[in-house]
Amino acid sequence: MIKRKNELKVVTQKEFLGGKGTLQLTHFLEREDAYDSGRLFALSVLTPGSSIGYHTHTGDGETYFILKGRALVNDDGEEAVLEAGDVLITKNGSSHSIENIGDTDLEYIALILFDK
C-alpha cells in the first residue's frame, strides 16, 4: 500500500493534554493498519512555545525521535534538552512531557506501542 502525503490524516489540537499552544499530527498509520501493536505513528509538530502536558502512559509506551528543533522534555521528573537525532523512550507506567523551546517548529516522530 502506498499513501501519498495528501492522503495522510492531519489533526491539529490545541493545549493537548494540558499543554500550551498547538500540536499538529500527520498520521502515517491508522490504528487498524498497525496490527494491534500500537495506536500512534505520526509526525508531530509543535509550534514555538507549544507543549504537550505531563502525562503517564498506562498499557503502552511512547518514543520520540527528534527531527528538527529544540525540545525541553520531562522524563519521569528529570528535565533535559533534546535536539535533532535525540530519542526519548517512555515506557509503560512512566510519565513525560515535551515543549518546543526553540524559535522554529519542533518536528519529531511519535510512536506509541502497546505493552503486551
UniProtKB/TrEMBL annotation:
This protein's UniProt keywords: Metal-binding
Domain Cupin type-2: 44-110
Gene Ontology molecular function, alphabetical: metal ion binding
UniProt protein name: Cupin domain-containing protein
